[in-house]
Amino acid sequence: MKILVTGGLGYIGSHTCVELLKDNEVVVLDNLSNSKEEVKDKIKQITGKDIKLYIGNMIDENLLDKIFTEEKIDAVIDFAAYKAVGESVKKPVEYYTNNISTVLVLLKVMKKHDVKKLVFSSSATVYGQPDHVPIKETDKTGGTTNPYGTSKLFVEQILKDLYQSDNSWDIAILRYFNPIGAHESGLIGEEPNGIPANLMPYIVKVASNELECLSVFGNDYPTKDGTGVRDYIHVVDLAKGHIKALEKLEKEQSGLYIYNLGTGIGYSVLDIVKAFEKVNNIKVNYKIAPRRPGDIAECYSDPTKAKEELGWQATKTIEDMCKDAYNYIVKSKEN
Ligand code: WQD
Predict the structure, then answer these.
(1) Atom number of ligand 1 nearest to Cα 221
(2) From ligand 1's centre to the CA of 199, what distance in Å?
(3) What digits encode the pLDDT tens for the residues 209-222?
(4) How far is it, in rounded angstroms, from Cα 50 to Cα 68?
(5) Over the range 21-54, which residues count as b (16 or more CB within 10 Å of their CB) and which as e?
(6) Angle at the Cα of 53 (from 31 to 159), degrees rounded to 5?
(7) Which residue, 214, 212, 215, 217, is CA-closest to 229?
(8) Going by fewer Cβ within 10 Å, which terminus of the chain is more open, N or C?
(9) Which residues contact 272 (CB under 8 A, 6 or more apart)?
(10) Which residues does the annotation mark as catalytic?
(11) What is the pLDDT of residues 292-321, one digit of tens each?
(12) What is residue 259's three-state secondary structure?
């Protein structure tokens, strides 16, 4: 198939393009707001294959129309969104515009060109403050605590309403837990601009002496060691989940499917620090700091549905995630 990947040069998008290129042609639309054009070359280095790249914004209906006219697109994977929780609190209008309005334009152009297969990148944040773990897809959503999570919740509702109005659509909504790690080649990975908000990119910068010390946000949570517990999933496992979701859409003519993409295992902050130190044989300086507003104690998935319906499950270990995350930074400093 020929797949349009919006945000395809980004962290999760680029890893998904690598997997897609095994059996598909890939067209990427990316506005380079949180990615670099050179990632296209890295993808070629890994796969030996080219992607067709369009640089621009999904809000640009004429550009989207041009892409669908020039390329015979069979399905779309939509990654294009801003995703920094803290930033979204400070810039709600930018987040709602970028994360919601762009999808409305995409859906309009897809309909015009009769392309109705869509894989949408959603997030575990749509569950808000879960009242129990592990979390199933049937658990309540809502009560989101930031505009980023709310924007994902709103798009999920838009897709449900769209399917309700026209059930010739074929949609898979994928709720990511905590993606970390990098491709084993070290050629692509996560490289947030500035001071990282997320745990693993921060640990990597401390380990590579770019930052001095990790602040562990709270050790008084009701968890095994008092620090926050999350469901970390290797970004390559996550990418493979998208391939399986596409295969599902290819097999079914229509439908709307929702899947948690996680490992089903919760690790604490200190678990991650210890695993990272062990597998990379390096010290990570940290100090206990106050809790981060909006954080929850525990969040991890029940990934049974994706295993049963997609034949997908995460296989990489926390050690793989820590090794590959550090390897990426080491390799990027060599080049
Ligand atoms: C993980 C744990 C922190 C940084 C967010 C988004 C989610 C997804 C992933 C987009 C928590 C602790 C963190 C630090 C720390 N993004 N921590 N010191 O908040 O679970 O999820 O990113 O889809 O939607 O909500 O991820 O990596 O920020 O935090 O102690 O410097 O690490 O308290 O327990 P989070 P995170």
Answers:
(1) 34
(2) 6
(3) 999 999 999 999 99
(4) 19
(5) beebbbbbbbbeebbeeebbebbeebbeeebebb
(6) 60
(7) 217
(8) C
(9) 199, 200, 203, 232, 318, 322
(10) 148
(11) 988 889 999 999 999 999 999 999 999 999
(12) strand
Residue 224 has pLDDT above 90, yes or no: yes
Structure confidence by residue, pLDDT tens digits, 116-151: 999 999 999 999 999 999 999 999 999 998 999 999
Q: Whose CA is nearest to atom 13 of ligand 1?
A: 199
For 219, half-sphere exposure in the C-beta direction (CA atoms, 13 angstrom radius) is: 10
User: 0.90 cut: is pTM over it?
Assistant: yes
Residue showing tokens 């914004």: 57
Overall average pLDDT of the 160-173 stretch: 98
Q: Using a 6 Å CB cutoff, which residues line ligand 1?
A: 83, 85, 123, 125, 176, 178, 197-199, 202, 214-217, 228, 230, 269, 292, 295
Q: Coil, strand or helix: which one is 243?
A: helix
In this structure, the residue with its CA closest to atom 17 of ligand 1 is 199
Closest ligand 1 atom to 196 CA: 31
The protein residue whose alpha carbon is closest to atom 31 in ligand 1 is 199
Q: Name the residue at shortest CA distance from atom 11 of ligand 1.
A: 228
pLDDT value for 69 = 98
What's the gap in Å between 257 CA and the centre of ligand 1? 26
